[in-house]
Amino acid sequence: GEDVEQSLFLSVREGDSSVINCTYTDSSSTYLYWYKQEPGAGLQLLTYIFSNMDMKQDQRLTVLLNKKDKHLSLRIADTQTGDSAIYFCAEKDQAGTALIFGKGTTLSVSS
Amino acid sequence: DTAVSQTPKYLVTQMGNDKSIKCEQNLGHDTMYWYKQDSKKFLKIMFSYNNKELIINETVPNRFSPKSPDKAHLNLHINSLELGDSAVYFCASGIGGMNTEAFFGQGTRLTVV
Predict the structure, then answer these.
(1) Bridge partner residues of A62 (DSSP)
(2) Which residues contact A40 (CB under 8 A, 6 or more apart)?
(3) How far, in Å, CA of A29 to CA of A67, rounded?
(4) Residue A98, min C-alpha distance to chain B (Å)
(5) Residue B27: C-alpha distances to residues B93, B97, B103 (Å)
(6) Pick among B43, B54, B57, B103 to test the A interface (most A CBs inside 10 A)
(7) How far apart are CA A15 and CA A65, in angstroms?
(8) Residue range B9-25: average pLDDT?
(9) A22-26, A79-83, A102-106: lowest mean pLDDT where?
(10) pLDDT in the model for residue B1
(11) DSSP H/E element including B78
């Protein structure tokens, strides 16, 4: 079945760049997503990338997609303490009916 | 103006009880979902539902059942609650199709004692 893998923790200093990596298994995924979950809150869609793109930039966020290696990354430039959260990578399931999430990467930003 | 709203936000109940969590979306989406997030923050799809089809994750016990009175609502009923059901349950909605982007509610933290 589908599987999405992420490293569980990342710690950076304020002002540095953060790079969160993800690998996925379903090569038919047309969209891949990044969600953010702050403590005690629901999931918020950060950005998504269409599978025919290699890169997408949105302000401080850059998404890179390597379809050959089934690797997705999220780069956050000038990381702030407010970026501390859990970041989930997601792809759709093979039935195309729901999202399959990675286990989430907890980003900790220290000042 | 909340897009996807769930009630209650917190639910504490005893083992063996039956409980429901309500979900409503005002986005006009035709697909709704229930996800379970365990204590390690892992998220798993439980159900996806549109007005035509209910798709159940085969790992979900049949004590869990979604009920949809109309397109804007998908409630989650849980019978004979067990300690292992303690988790945060998220409702979500989406337009379905190729782009399965989902909009999430704030979650219901269920604690079974």
Answers:
(1) A57, A75
(2) none
(3) 10
(4) 6
(5) 8, 16, 9
(6) B43
(7) 24
(8) 97
(9) A22-26
(10) 65
(11) strand B75-78
- pLDDT recorded at residue B88: 97
CB atoms within 10 A of CB A104: 25
User: What is the least distance, in Å, from the CA of B37 to any CA of chain A?
Assistant: 10
User: Residue B10 and residue A81: Cα distance in Å, rounded?
Assistant: 28
A31, B98 Cβ separation under 8 angstroms: yes
**B94-97, long-range: CB < 8 A, 24+ apart:** B94/B29, B94/B31, B94/B32, B94/B33, B95/B29, B95/B30, B95/B31, B96/A97, B96/B29, B96/B30, B96/B31, B96/B50, B97/A96
CA-to-CA distance for A57 and A59, rounded, in angstroms? 6
| pLDDT tens, residue by residue, B44-60 | 999 988 876 887 787 89
pLDDT of A48 > 80? The answer is yes
